[in-house]
């Protein structure tokens, strides 16, 4: 599946495009351990362009506001899951290219320090994630926005914590 990217580490950004934008790469658990020793299992990564401010590890990345398919920005709120690109596995400088995790055990940033293990997560402002709002009405239930599940309690606002991402 996907692209085999071997010229650089996956967790650094590049000023020049290295592979086709939107390309995916699958890393085995052994490879994942090189970048995140706390992760378990495989990763599926997506290659994106950072269209705005600098991105740091754990930031939730969504499509930019002009809906360019793989131009990413730090999430600005809760959006449908098809608009989320992934979680940054390392820094991506503004105007550069890099990889985000779309599927697997990775780090995310908490919106409020009150996320509990097992809660379904949605994108939130400032590149953070928050627990899904569950409601009986279609107007407020965020089921279509779920992008991950918390594998541990988050501990503090803006702190990184472990999640299992599942983003289309």
Helicity, as a percent range: under 10%
Unreliable parts: none
- Number of continuous helical runs: 1
pLDDT averaged residue by residue: 90
Give the strand content.
25-35%
Oligomer: single chain
Overall strand count? 10
Number of domains: 1
* Rg over C-alpha atoms, rounded to the nearest angstrom: 15 Å
The backbone outline, from C-alpha atoms, is globular
* Overall SS class: mainly beta
The SSE order reads EHEEEEEEEEE
Task: Briefly summarize what is shown.
The protein contains 1 helix and 10 strands. It is mainly beta. The chain has one domain (24-166).
Overview of the molecule:
The protein has 168 residues and is mainly β. The chain has one domain (24-166). Helix content is 2%, strand content 34%. The chain has 1 helix and 10 strands, in the order βαβββββββββ. The protein has one helix spanning 29-32; strands at residues 24-27, 43-50, 60-63, 71-74, 84-88, 97-109, 120-123, 129-131, 146-150, 160-166. A 5-stranded mixed barrel has the order 2-4-3-5-6. The two termini are 15 Å apart.
């Amino acid at each position: 599946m996907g692209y085999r990217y071997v010229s650089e580490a996956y967790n650094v950004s590049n000023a020049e495009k290295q592979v086709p934008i939107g390309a995916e790469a699958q890393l085995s658990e052994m490879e994942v351990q090189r970048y995140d020793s706390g992760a378990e299992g495989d990763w599926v990564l997506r290659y994106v362009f950072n269209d705005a401010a600098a991105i740091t590890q754990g930031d939730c990345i969504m499509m930019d506001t002009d809906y360019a398919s793989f131009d990413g920005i730090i999430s600005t709120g809760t959006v449908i899951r098809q608009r989320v690109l992934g979680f940054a596995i390392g820094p991506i400088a503004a105007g550069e290219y890099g990889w985000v995790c779309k599927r697997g055990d990775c780090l995310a940033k908490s919106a409020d320090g009150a996320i509990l293990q097992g809660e379904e997560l949605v994108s939130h402002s400032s590149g953070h994630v928050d627990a899904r709002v569950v409601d009986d009405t279609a107007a407020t239930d965020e089921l279509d926005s779920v992008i991950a599940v918390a594998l541990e309690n988050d501990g503090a606002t803006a702190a990184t914590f472990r999640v299992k991402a599942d983003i289309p």
